[in-house]
């Protein structure tokens, strides 16, 4: 399966979002790590050929007004885990799950408030040996 990764202006906040388009299937994933906007266009019925697909064979899920985008990194991992949250309640559930993890190096939420992206660092294990209060 081949894909093209592009960077676009987020339809929600206007900041940079990434667009992962699978050119062999027409499926697409758009994510904004600034505000949490997410849109996913996927094939539901994979038993049909691409030429046989109708509108009913596609699923489009769009999170137009997200609560925010979270990011956390586990010590020793190369990358971070990122995701969108739909509501404050959903973020509290993510926050609780991350608090139960061991070796969390970094945890934050980024939100669109008014016309501005606000980044709140929830937890950061500093390199100098000091660390913030646990989540």
Number of domain units: 2
Secondary-structure element string: EEEEEEEHEE
Unreliable stretches (pLDDT < 50, length at least 5) are none
Overall average pLDDT: 91
Structural class: mainly beta
Quaternary organization: single chain
Largest sheet: 5 strands, antiparallel
Q: Rough shape?
A: globular
Kindly state the percentage of residues in helix.
under 10%
> Taking Cα atoms only, what radius of gyration do you get, to the nearest Å?
18 Å
N/C terminus separation: 40 Å
Number of helical elements: 1
Q: Assess the beta-strand content as a share of residues.
A: over 45%
Strand order of the largest sheet: 1-2-3-4-5
* DSSP E strands, number: 9
Layout of secondary structure:
Layout: E1 3-9, E2 16-22, E3 27-31, E4 38-43, E5 58-63, E6 68-74, E7 81-85, H1 88-99, E8 104-113, E9 116-124
Antiparallel strand pairs: 1-2, 2-3, 3-4, 4-5, 6-7, 6-8, 8-9
Features:
135 residues; mainly beta; 2 domains; 5-stranded antiparallel beta sheet; 4-stranded antiparallel beta sheet
Give a description of the structure.
By secondary structure, the chain is mostly beta strands. It folds into two domains: 3-63; 68-124, no CATH class. Helices cover 9% and strands 46% of the residues. It has one helix and nine strands. It has one helix spanning 88-99; strands spanning 3-9, 16-22, 27-31, 38-43, 58-63, 68-74, 81-85, 104-113, 116-124. A five-stranded antiparallel sheet has the order 1-2-3-4-5, with no helix packed on it. The N and C termini lie far apart (40 Å). The mean pLDDT is 91.
